[in-house]
């Protein structure tokens, strides 16, 4: 796949297993894991005490032009999850996290979303040109009504990534006037290896803490605007 440096299949498999176990142990949420290489890793969780909270889907989803890149494949993975997951079918919202990343502060992030119940929670940079697609939370309708329709726009070779598509979907949902948006209250503290550039992300507390303070301030500004809008 173009722009994908982390190619070793065994490394990727072990990273996925480790990350799934992290979320099974650290959260009480239902977890849906979907991958598009056709390799089934469900045997690794047969004896897990948390097996009832885990759905695993594997399908052959790489039969598209590799120049389109992994963002195109990631969108196909999301669509596959929505089509086949019983967990998603019976719930109202989805937190999407790239499979090799552990969000070390996932529980405070999820609690914030549950408290404020905005339609979309994602980090939008000030330039409003792209969104951080590694982790975001949204109503199911956001995916089906806005995000999935951007699939044909994603082409990594032409510089239009999943991050651009997500940003477009968020802005269009807000412009429609029916969707509320909030940034994360807490800066996601990520740990894992990027498949794109092979870099290791392991945000130390000293690095993450000042960024988190800025994130909390930003969230308070946006949530105040949301309260004013609702009060009107």
Ordered list of secondary-structure elements with their pairings:
Layout: H1 9-26, E1 31-35, E2 54-58, H2 70-84, H3 86-89, E3 93-97, E4 102-103, H4 106-116, E5 120-121, E6 135-139, H5 140-147, H6 162-175, E7 181-182, E8 190-193, E9 200-202, H7 205-231
Parallel strand pairs: 1-2, 5-7
Antiparallel strand pairs: 3-6, 4-8, 5-6, 8-9
Helix content: 40-55%
Strand order of the largest sheet: 3-6-5-7
Question: Which word captures the global form?
Answer: globular
Proportion of beta-strand residues:
5-15%
Number of strands: 9
Give the C-alpha Rg.
17 Å
Order of helices and strands: HEEHHEEHEEHHEEEH
What structural class results from the helix and strand content?
A: alpha/beta
Tally of DSSP helical segments = 7
**Average pLDDT value?**
89
Distance between the termini: 49 Å
Biggest sheet record = 4 strands, mixed
Q: Which stretches are poorly predicted, pLDDT < 50 over at least 5 residues?
A: none
Could you characterize the architecture of this molecule?
The chain is an alpha/beta fold and 232 residues long. 42% of the residues lie in helices and 14% in strands. The strands form 3 sheets. Strands 3-6-5-7 form a 4-stranded mixed beta sheet. The mean pLDDT is 89.
List keywords for this structure.
232 residues, alpha/beta, four-stranded mixed β-sheet, three-stranded antiparallel β-sheet, 7 helices, 14% strand
